[in-house]
Fold:
Amino acid sequence: MKKSKFTIFIAMIICVLILTSACGKKDDSNSGKVTITYWQYTFPQKVDIIKDLIKKFEAENPNIKVVAQDFPYDQYNQKIAAAVNAKKGPDIMNLYYGWLPQYQQKGYIQSIPEDFMSANDIESYYIPMIQASKINGKYYGLPVAVRSLALFWNKDMFKAAGLDPEKPPKTWDELITMAKQMTKMKANGQYEQEGFAWDVNGQGYHTFEEVLLRQWGIIPFSDDGKTVQWSSSPEGLEAFKYWVNMTKEEKIGDRNFLTDYNTAFKAGKAGMMIDGSFSVAATKEAAKFAWGVTTLPVREEGGIKSNFGSYWTNSLAKGLSGEKLKAAEKFLKFLISEDTQKEWLDKVGELPAAASFSNDDSIKSDPIYGPFVEGLADAHATLFVDEAKERDSINNAVESILLKNAPFDKTFENLVKEQQKIRDQYYK
Amino acid sequence: MTNVSSNRQPMKLQTRRTLTAYTFLIVPLLFFISIRIFPTLYAFSLSFMTQDHTSGTIDNYKQLLQDPVFWKSVLNTGLYVIVTVPLQMALGLIIALGIQRVRHFRWFYRMIYFLPYITSIVAVSWVWRLMYDQNTGVFNQILTWLHIPPQGFLGDPNESLLSVSAVMIWQAMGFSMLIFMAGLEAVPKHFYEAAQIDGASKWKMFWKITFPLLNPTIVFLAVTGVIQSLQSFTQIQNLTGGSAANAGGPLNSTLSIVVYMYKNAFTDFNMEYASAITVVLFIIILLVTLIQLRILNKSYEY
Structure:
């Protein structure tokens, strides 16, 4: 009796295992039509334009169906990691260029096929900045558009503080003096209004790495991306001090004020902020005040200009092959076409990435997009190896100075060591 | 196995019953094997793999031992347990005793105190986050009225863990209250009557009768409370995370083991290292639970 019970039990277990293994092997191929999926994070303007573009693309290519899905930014990486590991990942994914090294290392994406677009083709089609997506001589993503930073200023707040609303600051020192005039603080140290939306996690640390450090005479990373050179001269520490002291000593803004920097600006509670052109559409919609955009400040008038360039690329999933790959290539080609790039600027506010646009006067003379295009000329895209970790590390350094009063020199020294360690771990 | 066709006997009643039982059991079994047991075993094996899955290794565990952030998260998790569990139980008991004395509208008070527990943790955390805000939050406004300098709350590494714990306690005490109320109902009334005749004080009655007889309830709440706070994640993620901040911050002062595991798995994509953290957490929970059951589960004769 005992034995037969046991046999039944074993038989049941086997049944269960067979049933579970049968799950999840559904095939969704239908009647010769190729379906590809496109994933991006939820940026309303981008979601809308992709929808329109897909309609146009599907009309031109009746046997390809493109399914677009989007996820909130906070969960986007998590979603991809979970989906790819479960073999349910997208065929084309929109990725921040700084994530590419990790996605490549994890085997989530494949390089752009040589027969579709060779490295030379890519380099002659695009402006040089996009070379940051080259890993071991191969490209892992193709962008539609690029972004640079500029200084947004609130003309109404300038006027209210007795400043000339048409004269934004040209140097960092000017920025600090003007911001001080606009900052309103209660007696107990709480901000009511900040002059400059200082932050770390948004565009703040990019501003430090690619703008301040370079203007203080430091090339932040070696050409191969393997060495962190922030402390190659004492000026590095000076730049770091200057940057952190904007909030610590000068008190022209607080990183936590109204949850984040662009919320504070849009609410009319921050006199200035540094942000990308992608913020233009949202600012236009939310701002109930007059505002303008100008190029980033410099250390002293006539000094080195510098800017941080960044972009989102479209990458092909690893393992994509055959008909699906061909369909995905077709869609990519459509996405990066010059027509799309032009439309992208109008609807999303990101600048065209193709080299053919760099002398387009109609964009350059635009009062809002002009400063961004101008900034593009001096823009550097940081060669990240692990964008999230690098950001965390610099944020921790700043927090220990602001919250624990840690000394600048020691903290900076540790920060450089940590940044170097992140790079060593990747390149080992 | 015996050959069925050569020896066709009618199935015994008991065999048939067993068969029926297993047929019914197959559904939950399927669920547990595919949703719980298989992923658990997979995580175990993953934790012994290199990142490219080519060979086995114990490097993940070696790295874990030397990782100061991991130890910080272990320390914080311990603090969450020590701070939240006793307080939420004590407050739950006090409220339960209070409500027991109320004659009218008892359901109303019960509902009021239980409400936080059934509200979405994410929504509640964001409301608290706004109240904690350094510049615009309600708490600092109240402090200003009282002429107390504004506090950092979630922004200050010395106060952040307590601020997060307060939200956890506030949410969990309603649950403790409900369980304690059920426990109090179960205490036989004649004990109190006998004690009253003997002239025992209220205080003595509580410590000599109510408290010992609530022991099973206390054990239950302590075990579930400790496990829950060892796994704390949602409140921390929503109170401290977001696009402009790091979950577990500032300076890892609110980082719990689970939040650290999540960050490793889904922002650094290091599933193997994250699995190793999970295994360690599993062992911690197992040990703590065994110890608790040993110490707390003394039986009381009614």
Notes: The interface with chain A takes residues 1, 12, 14-15, 18-19, 22, 25-26, 29-30, 33-34, 38, 133-136, 140, 144, 149-150, 152, 155-157, 241-246, 249-252, 265-269, 271 of chain B (CB under 8 Å). Residues 13-47 of chain B form the longest helix (35 residues).
